[in-house]
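Fill in residues.
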C-alpha cells in the first residue's frame, strides 16, 4: 500500500494520560470500553488501574496497589459475563481479580520461586465448546505451570532440560547451574474441548510447542535471540500460524499448516521496522477482525503489519512428503507514538480498530486504526 494514499490504514493516537509509574501490561475489559493496566511504581509496588472514558477524556476509574510489582495481565480464562483477570507479581504469586472487587484477589497462589514474567488464559470464550478455563504462567525460575483456579496446585509443571542449562562462575569459586527464564507463553489450537496447545519462549531463544492433549513437546526450535513475545493468530481454531517476536528486532512467522519430519515448519524471518532496526519487539497482537493483520511494538513505535499467504501453502517432494511454503509480510504503517519504549499493546475485541498501549514513559495511550477493513480481504 502507498503510505501517501489517504485510504491506507494508519494508527491515530486519540488519548494519552500520565500514570506516574511504568506500565508492563494492558488488557481491555471484555465487552466494554474500559482498559486495565498493571505495572511497577518507584517504590516497587504493583498498581492495578482501571481506565474509562468520561466527557471525551480518559480518566482513572479505580486503582489498587499491590505489595509487589506486576508484569502481565490476561482476561483469557474469564468466562463471560464474568470479568476476571489473571496477573503475576515479582514474588512469584499468581493472582486472579474480579474487576468489580479489586481490593482482594479471588484466587492467589505462590506459583513460582521467581518473578512471573508472563501469563496467558484460555477457555473463557465458551468452556462447553473449547474446554475448561486454564491459566499458564512462565517465570524467572525457568518453569512453566498450568493452573485451574479450582485448585491450589498446578495441573502441569514444565521444567527446562539439563541440555539448556549453563554453568556460570569460575573454577576456583565454583559454578552455579542456571536455567533459561521463560519470558512468554501463549495458548492456541483450542478448537475442541480436548484440543489445546501451549507455546513457550525462553531468554536463550528456545521455542517449545506443547500439545496438552498428548502431554508432549511436539516441536522445538532455537532462534538466535531471546523470545519476548508469542501469539497464535487465533486461539480457537486448528493451529494455523504462530508469530514469535524477539530481541534485535526480529519477528518470525511460523506456518503451522504443514509439518515435515526433516524440514519441520516453514518460517518467515521479518523485521517490521526495517532491516537496520534492532529495537526489541516486546509484543505482537493479532487484530480481532482479521487473523492475518497484527500490530507490534518496538522502541517508541507501533507497526501495523499484514501477512500474505503464498498461492500454495505446501509442495510435494520427490519422496511423497509435503513441506510447507511460507508467505510474505508487509508493514502497512510504522508510526512513532512515544518518546520511550512501548512494551505492551492490546486490541479491543468488541470495537474493531481500537488499541491501547503503554510503556516506560509512564503513560497510558488509546489509539485507533483507520480503514482496517481494507486489510481483511
Amino acid at each position: 500500500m502507498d503510505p501517501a494514499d489517504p485510504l491506507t490504514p494508519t494508527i491515530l493516537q486519540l488519548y494519552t494520560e500520565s500514570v506516574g509509574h511504568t506500565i508492563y501490561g494492558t488488557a481491555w475489559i471484555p465487552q466494554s470500553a474500559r482498559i486495565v493496566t498493571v505495572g511497577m511504581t518507584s517504590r516497587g509496588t504493583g498498581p492495578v488501574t482501571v481506565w474509562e472514558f468520561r466527557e471525551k477524556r480518559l480518566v482513572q476509574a479505580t486503582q489498587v496497589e499491590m505489595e509487589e510489582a506486576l508484569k502481565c495481565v490476561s482476561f483469557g480464562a474469564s468466562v463471560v459475563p464474568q470479568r476476571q483477570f489473571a496477573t503475576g507479581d515479582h514474588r512469584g504469586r499468581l493472582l486472579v481479580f474480579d474487576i468489580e472487587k479489586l481490593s482482594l484477589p479471588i484466587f492467589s497462589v505462590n506459583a513460582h520461586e521467581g518473578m512471573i514474567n508472563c501469563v496467558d488464559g484460555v477457555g473463557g470464550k465458551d468452556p462447553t465448546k473449547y474446554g475448561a478455563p486454564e491459566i499458564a504462567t512462565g517465570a524467572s525460575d525457568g518453569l512453566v505451570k498450568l493452573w485451574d483456579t479450582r485448585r491450589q496446585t498446578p495441573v502441569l509443571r514444565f521444567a527446562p532440560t539439563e541440555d539448556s542449562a549453563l554453568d556460570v562462575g569460575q573454577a576456583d569459586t565454583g559454578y552455579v547451574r542456571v536455567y533459561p527464564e521463560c519470558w512468554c507463553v501463549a495458548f492456541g489450537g483450542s478448537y475442541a474441548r480436548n484440543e489445546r496447545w501451549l507455546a513457550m519462549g525462553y531468554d536463550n531463544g528456545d521455542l517449545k510447542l506443547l500439545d496438552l492433549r498428548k502431554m508432549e513437546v511436539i516441536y522445538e526450535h532455537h532462534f538466535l535471540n531471546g523470545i519476548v513475545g508469542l501469539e497464535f493468530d487465533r486461539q480457537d481454531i486448528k493451529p494455523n500460524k504462530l508469530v514469535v517476536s524477539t530481541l534485535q528486532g526480529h519477528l518470525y512467522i511460523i506456518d503451522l499448516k504443514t509439518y515435515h519430519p526433516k524440514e519441520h515448519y516453514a518460517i518467515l524471518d521479518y523485521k517490521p521496522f526495517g532491516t537496520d532496526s534492532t529495537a526489541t519487539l516486546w509484543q505482537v497482537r493479532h487484530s480481532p477482525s482479521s487473523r492475518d493483520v497484527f500490530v507490534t511494538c518496538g522502541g517508541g513505535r507501533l507497526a501495523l503489519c499484514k501477512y500474505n499467504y503464498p498461492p500454495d501453502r505446501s509442495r510435494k517432494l520427490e519422496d511423497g512428503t509435503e513441506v510447507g511454503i511460507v508467505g510474505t509480510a508487509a508493514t502497512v504503517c510504522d508510526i512513532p507514538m512515544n518518546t520511550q519504549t512501548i512494551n505492551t499493546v492490546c486490541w479491543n475485541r468488541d470495537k474493531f480498530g481500537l488499541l491501547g498501549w503503554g510503556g516506560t514513559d509512564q503513560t497510558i495511550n488509546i489509539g485507533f486504526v483507520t480503514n482496517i477493513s481494507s486489510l481483511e480481504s
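The radius of gyration is 20 Å.
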